[in-house]
Amino acid sequence: MEFGKKILCIGAGYVGGPTMAMIAYKCPQYRVTVVDINPTRIAQWNSDDLPIYEPGLEEIVKASRGKNLFFSTDIEGGIKEAEIIFVSVNTPTKTFGSGMGMASDLQYWDKTAKQIRQFAESDKIIVEKSTLPVKTALAMERILTATNNGVHFEVLSNPEFLAEGTGIKDLEDPDRVLIGSRETTSGLKARNSLVEVYANWVPQDRIITSNIWSSELSKLVANAFLAQRISSINSISALCEKTDADITEVARAVGMDSRLGNKFLNASVGFGGSCFKKDILNLVYLCRHYGLEEVADYWQGVVTINEYQKERVITNMLGAMFNTLAGKRICLFGFAFKANTGDTRESPAVTISKRLIEEKAELVITDPKALDNAKMDLNNIDGKISYVEDPYEASDGCDAIAVMTEWEAYKNLDFEMIYRSMPKPAFIFDGRNILDHKRLFDIGFNIFPIGKPPLTHFK
Ligand code: NAD
Ligand code: UGA
What we know:
Elements: E1 6-10, H1 16-26, E2 31-35, H2 39-45, H3 57-64, E3 69-72, H4 75-81, E4 84-87, H5 107-119, E5 124-128, H6 136-144, E6 153-157, H7 167-172, E7 177-181, H8 185-198, E8 207-211, H9 212-243, H10 247-255, H11 276-289, H12 293-320, E9 329-333, H13 348-358, E10 362-366, H14 371-377, E11 385-387, H15 391-395, E12 400-403, H16 415-420, E13 427-430, H17 437-443, E14 446-449
Parallel strand pairs: 1-2, 1-4, 2-3, 4-5, 5-6, 7-8, 9-10, 9-12, 10-11, 12-13, 13-14
Helix pairs in contact: 1-3, 9-11, 9-12, 11-12, 12-13
This protein binds nicotinamide-adenine-dinucleotide and uridine-5'-diphosphate-glucuronic acid.
């Protein structure tokens, strides 16, 4: 069969895999190939055991794989063949040299650009899918045109807004698709070509276009605003705990103002995930680079409050459990950074586990999807940690349960049975406010929610 467009994606991760699976699924007339330098990851994409857990992903991969969706390690062949190349490689925070701990590490990006230049024999549209510092497209253009090999490259920015756990729904029914381009004839032509891809299933009024720098910057700003809301509500949760106000009631009252809206106002143990922290730090770094110290300080505050919130979990546990956690068994309910994913990158549970081990507590970790990642994250930690899939078995004999992830399954457990299996006094720290606190209190637990008065049986 002759395919209408040949699309390549470099980087088969949380973004590249699902995004391309959705394009292939919605556009059977296009041939979509996803390549990666990691052969294990590609083998997993070609197997029944996909490398990431995302509700609905398996169905769409199985529907298209081998027909118009291919996973491969042949980067050279993929580049030669494609007309549109999405680049979705990782852009983590730099861990070395200048900008360490703040700036984006662009080494994978840089290598990819050079590979594209090396192997391309015909004109290509290059689509920035990774999240990047504003002005990266300029660097990309400079690398691609450095050898003047007669091939024309047009660089577009098309940031991804999917959230893990709801990724497939977000891709199928996005709030918006953003495409940034140069405002030249060839830039606008390339932009139209990408609009055409999304128009196969996304309504035209939700496909928005802009200049390329606005598009790059909008992605960083969207994540910064989302994270800012969580830090805002988490900062107020601390004040609620001092004043007997209830964070759920405050969030409800505030969120009913239609100008503010009611989403993203759940107080928690802090935000995690691979992107919020790294993207804000990147924004802060950019602001400092341009001499905007006040702006940088403002956004740095969002990360600072998040670190404070994680530490508050430990302080609250210490305060509640008579100022010592040494030798106490703490069961963590959940390790993923949010529900419906096995991803643990920057999960608050990682930091909290390390702190609990410093306090010489013993940890029992349970999670329906993230135990393998949890084991890797805590691999080098010197302390007593066990990993147990069944929450009843995990909490058996523990002094406290601390809810780290808002898995639906935790709401409906038999807490009477759990209570019987724990030494007394038995504690629950609900870091997500998902449990029925009054009922648990009536069973006999001492309950410490986030941003609400505790319910304890102590006189
Ligand atoms: P990831 O680490 O899961 O995947 C990146 C993949 O790129 C890896 O499999 C890696 O092996 C591969 N890779 C690196 N260099 C390569 C090269 N030279 N050639 C071929 N493959 C190469 O990362 P991710 O979570 O998919 O994120 C990718 C980008 O998308 C980041 O910039 C991130 O900020 C952004 N983003 C992520 C999410 C998310 O939910 N995870 C959402 C929106 C945007
Ligand atoms: C986030 C954004 O929501 C996506 O739009 C963006 O594409 C993505 O980052 C990215 O660039 O990687 P994600 O990190 O997958 O998506 O998940 P979110 O739903 O945003 O949750 C992030 C963290 O905030 C989680 O730890 C979650 O538990 C926490 N959170 C979220 C709260 O603590 N309270 C809330 O009210 C909402």
